[in-house]
Structures are given as C-alpha cells and as structure tokens.
C-alpha cells in the first residue's frame, strides 16, 4: 500500500510538471457599435453613412497563443491571430499574425507573419489605443483622406530581438518572398531594425524598414475590333452590321510595361512618459515609396507627427490625439498638408467590458483649391475574452 501511494504521488508530480511546462491560451476581442461617417471629397461631394458595424473602434480578433518550456532556460512560443468580422462571417486564418519563436537568455528568434517595426511603434505608443476611428495619421487600417497609410501592418519575416540590457534592446528582421522564373523576378524582400529603451515611466522606440517589390513586365496588346455573330438564328437586327450579339469585345491598344521595382522606406520614432495623472506620447513617421522606372504612379512621400494623451478618471479614461504632416501622392506633385485629430472617452464597465464614445477627423490638402476631409463619430461596446 505504501509503495502504491508513493507511485501515485510520483505520477502526480510528473503530470504536474508536464502541465507546467506547456500552456495554450485562447483569447480575443469583440467590438460592435454604431458609426456615423462623412466624406467630403475635393469639396465637391459629401457622402454620409450611418451603420451598425463590426470594429468601429477596435479590431476584432480571435487569438491562440502558447508556450512550452524546453528546459535549460529555453522556451518555444507560438501565436496565431485572426481578424473577426461577425457580420459577414468571412475569415482568413492568421491574417493578423502567425509565428513561432525560440526565447532564452540569448533573446528571441521569431519566424512568421508579425508586426512591422513601424506598426510596433504605432501600436505600442498610441495613447488613443491605435483605434480604427479616423484621425490617426499613423494608422495602418483607418480611413485616411491622404490616400495612403502611414505605417505598414504585417510582414512575413525572420526576426531576432536581443535581451534587455540596462533598459536597452534591439531587433533586426529579414523578409524574403521573391521568385525568379527564367530571369523574370517577382515578389517582395526587405529588412528592418529597431532600438528600444525603457527607464522607469519613460520609454522610446525607433526603427527603420526597407522593402523592395519586383513587378514583372506586361506585354503590349494590339488593338482589335469587335466581332459580331452573323448566324441565321439571330433574329435581333438592331445592332451594328445587322446583328448585336458580340462574340469578341473591342480592345484598345496598350503599350509594353517594362519590369520595375518599387522601393519603400519607413522610419518611425516614438517616445512616451507616464506622468501619473496622464500619459503622453509623441510619434514621428516618415514614409516614401518610389518606382525604379521613374513613373510617378505609386509614389508616396509622407511625413507626420502625432501627439496623443490619455488620462484615467475613476472608471473612465479620457483620450485625445492631434497630428500634422504632409504628403505627395502619385503624379499629383503637390505637397499637401495633413491634419488629424481624435478625442473620446472609454468607460470600464468591468475588467473585460468597456463602453466608448469617440470622434475623429482627418484632412488632406490635394491642391491649392481642393481638399479631402473625413469625419467619424462612433459609440459602442467592446468585450475581451
């Protein structure tokens, strides 16, 4: 009997050890609310919409994450996050991040789809919560009257991050996704690096990413006229040439588009300080994209600086942000001013449920006489699980 008790205790200890060595967590967020948007394009037309929508303020997601203790201070971690759109039921597994990593005293080595360094700067420092409401000039997802996003969202890369030493840490990432078929190149590759620093209530992060996308040439197309069916079964004779049944549409001529590459550089820097009664962040983003064939299509030259603040008052949190910048896009050639603003209040109904009311505006001066302007007001409830 004594041996049986000892054996049972030993098995329980082993089972407990195995359980402690690995863990899997399921979590997520659901945000549903009412959105009132207005788009004034070129001061010529005003398009308004009022809808009950998914994610008016926060992006909905379902996340699986886990960790396994490999022994010797080494851990294996995984992360799989999927955007949720309950109103449509359309999902793409892992579209908000999917990676595995090894972590230890050497730092972390991660492979898979993950945040870019510019997204880390934006999400990690925005005091407004990197929300979807218009008005954040650094947003990678919100509507933007400037016509181009401020930061890149995700990249599939191999990333190494150093351990934190005296508040300092650094990271470097490499992205490779290109093919070469008989000398014809396509796809994207790139690299990025970042440096972070934390000291008490102060923290800062700076990074730069470079990506190059190869685009294959497109052959020239000769013009061709439309062909019409002339068989005896055709009884409708109202068309051209006695019939109107088209069996070959007319095609306009198009010139050869040579192969080219688009190079995009993004530099992002942010710093924040928690004053106790309020926390504030200042973020700067510089994005430029150019084609190797000097064509202006796809050109982006965008710079923005944003100040954001949040202040807790009991169960409520007041937040606001204001940004200024400039942007040149495509063949416009005009350097137009950008301005964006957000403000609102979040009320914590519990540790997992929050109600909110927010407003945002963003403006882009397209020329000396034309301007785009977005505005949005949203109210809703978000729940974490």
What does this structure look like?
The protein is mainly β and 385 residues long. The protein has one domain (24-217, 258-384): Porin. Helices cover 8% and strands 57% of the residues. It has two helices and 19 strands. The chain has helices at 2-21, 117-125; strands spanning 22-41, 45-54, 61-71, 74-83, 98-104, 107-115, 154-161, 168-181, 184-199, 202-215, 227-228, 246-248, 260-274, 279-291, 300-313, 316-329, 336-348, 353-365, 371-384. A 16-stranded antiparallel β-barrel has the order 1-3-4-5-6-7-8-9-10-13-14-15-16-17-18-19. The chain has a two-stranded antiparallel sheet with strand order 11-12. The longest helix has 20 residues, at 2-21. Mean pLDDT is 83; it is low at 1-19 and 232-243.
Blueprint (SSEs and pairs):
Layout: H1 2-21, E1 22-41, E2 45-54, E3 61-71, E4 74-83, E5 98-104, E6 107-115, H2 117-125, E7 154-161, E8 168-181, E9 184-199, E10 202-215, E11 227-228, E12 246-248, E13 260-274, E14 279-291, E15 300-313, E16 316-329, E17 336-348, E18 353-365, E19 371-384
Antiparallel strand pairs: 1-2, 1-3, 1-19, 3-4, 4-5, 5-6, 6-7, 7-8, 8-9, 9-10, 10-13, 11-12, 13-14, 14-15, 15-16, 16-17, 17-18, 18-19
């Amino acid at each position: 009997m004594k041996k049986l008790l000892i054996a049972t205790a030993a098995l329980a200890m082993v089972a407990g050890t195995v359980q402690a060595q690995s863990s899997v967590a399921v979590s997520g967020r659901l945000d549903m609310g009412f959105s009132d948007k207005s788009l004034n394009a070129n001061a010529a037309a005003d398009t308004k919409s009022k809808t009950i929508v998914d994610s008016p303020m926060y992006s909905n997601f379902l996340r699986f994450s886990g960790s396994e203790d490999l022994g010797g201070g080494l851990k294996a971690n995984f992360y799989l996050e999927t955007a949720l759109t309950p109103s449509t039921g359309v999902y793409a597994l892992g579209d908000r991040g999917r990676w595995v990593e090894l972590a230890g005293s050497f730092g972390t080595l991660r492979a898979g789809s993950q945040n870019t360094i510019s997204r880390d700067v934006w999400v990690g420092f925005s005091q407004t919560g990197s929300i979807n409401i218009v008005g954040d000039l650094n947003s990678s997802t919100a509507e933007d009257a400037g016509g181009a996003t401020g930061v890149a969202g995700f990249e599939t890369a191999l990333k190494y991050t150093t351990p934190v030493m005296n508040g300092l840490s650094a990271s470097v990432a490499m992205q490779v996704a290109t093919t070469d078929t008989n000398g014809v190149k396509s796809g994207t590759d790139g690299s990025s690096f970042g440096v972070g620093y934390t000291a008490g209530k102060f923290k800062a992060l700076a990074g730069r990413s470079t990506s190059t996308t190869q685009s294959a040439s497109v052959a020239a197309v000769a013009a061709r006229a439309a062909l019409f069916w002339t068989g005896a079964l055709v009884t409708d004779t109202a068309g051209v040439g006695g019939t109107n049944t088209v069996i070959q549409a007319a095609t306009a001529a198009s010139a050869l588009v040579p192969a080219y590459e688009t190079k995009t550089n993004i530099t992002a820097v942010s710093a924040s300080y928690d004053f106790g009664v309020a926390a504030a962040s200042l973020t700067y983003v510089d994005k430029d994209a150019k084609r190797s064939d000097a064509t202006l299509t796809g050109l982006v030259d965008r710079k923005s600086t944003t100040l954001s603040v949040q202040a807790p008052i009991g169960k409520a949190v007041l937040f606001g942000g204001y940004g200024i910048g400039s942007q040149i896009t495509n063949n416009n050639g005009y350097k137009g001013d950008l301005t964006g603003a957000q403000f609102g209040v979040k009320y914590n109904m519990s540790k997992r449920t929050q109600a909110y009311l927010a407003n945002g505006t963003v403006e882009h001066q397209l020329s000396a006489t034309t301007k785009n302007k977005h505005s949005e007001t949203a109210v809703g409830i978000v729940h974490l699980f």
